[in-house]
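User: Continuing from earlier, I have the next pair ready.

Assistant: Great, send them over.

User: Here they are, in order.

Assistant: Folding the first of the pair now:
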Amino acid sequence: MQKIYLISVIFYCLISQSITIAQEVPESIELDSLSWLSGYWTDIQDKKSIEEIWLAPRDSLMLGMHREYNASGRFFYEFLRIEQTEKNIIYYAAPAGRSATPFRLVEIAENRVVFENKTHDFPQEISYTLENDSTLLVQVGSSDKSIEWRWIKAQFIY
């Protein structure tokens, strides 16, 4: 009996996570409504350079890359994507070459978007807010920790 109970609990956890990620958003939401996120965003904070680049939406996909580095040579990178599925828009973050973690869209406005995954350790919520044409507020957090950045839109030089 205990084995059946344990298997049931494991099955429920797996199913509930996939249901949480796939919850529906209004049909009128299109990935193109996030085109304001496209561009090269950067800032220097505490001698650390931060860059995030987002390509414009194409079909059902936006691609992004995040990089941080400091004068001592330490760095962090992350590959990002936002995909529109049949039922929702999902943000995927793959830090430092690890597997991608999904965050589902939970809030969208003209210049603001919020994604969440309550089963992830940190962050559980990621938000982008376009404060004006050249300033992007980015917030990541969980119930006990929060980080905030303000990035400036710049010309991308490659």
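And the other member of the pair:
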Amino acid sequence: MLNAIARYAPRVVAALVVASLTLSALPARADQIDRILVEDADKVVTAVKNLKAKNVAVLKFQVKIGDAPASFGGGTEGIEMLHRVENLLILGLDQKNPEYTVLTKAGEAAAAAAKAAKAPVDWTTADGRKRLFQLQLPVAWDDRDMRAPDAFVTGKVIVSKDYKTVKIELVAFTPGDKEPRVLGTLHDEKGRGIHVDRSTLASLGQTFTTSRSLKKTGHKRDFTAPDEAASADPPAGKAPPPPPRPTSRTLRSGSRCCSTGPSPPSSPTRAAAASSRSGSRPRQAGPASG
């Protein structure tokens, strides 16, 4: 098993290293939640070890925005938190003396069980938690090794009403727990909510625009500036400004010259329309002279 972990871990390490780079432009976007998770990784792993469970699985997080009740909606943030925590727990394993095994694909198995039972199977109800422990899940690094979980880790993404800050509440439960127990809450260095950046806004299903004047200055908040993005949105009830019209310009390269810009009209109709805008009459085609 240890060799299997060693083969799987480098891929996960690469994913989290990318997530920890604040200025990465790769598809695996880094954001403030990734940074806080990396900084508090040891605390999260220790809390899971204290569950004394042998087979641990991670479930989709709920999302709570402002005063609204928590739900499994809210964009893709809930499933992204699942993958973040699952990867973190794999990286936290001691390869020489692993204290737990990480199981995966709990969401898919729960969905299949819910379809068969024609009833929800999730961690928000006592009956749902009971059904979750009846699942057989594959080990994260070996799909052929199926096991029954004896602990689940999940939580809530708690977003402020103005979408400026977010806190992550981590919870876990074992078969003997009547209710999920709180493992802790992730927040920034000063105990406040984590700054919501553009990556998190997108994961929450929120649209935004960024100001053209926004430039990187090297500060930590440069890549997490939804404030400027929100201020660039058009006021309610007003359409956004039209994009600027293309302009023609001449490029020279050695003795060659070319013009870039809008393509010339390709039909008599377009030519007439273009001439009417410029105030001149379209040129009529006449018979060819011999």
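Worth noting for the second one:
Residues 2-231 form one domain. The mean pLDDT is 74.
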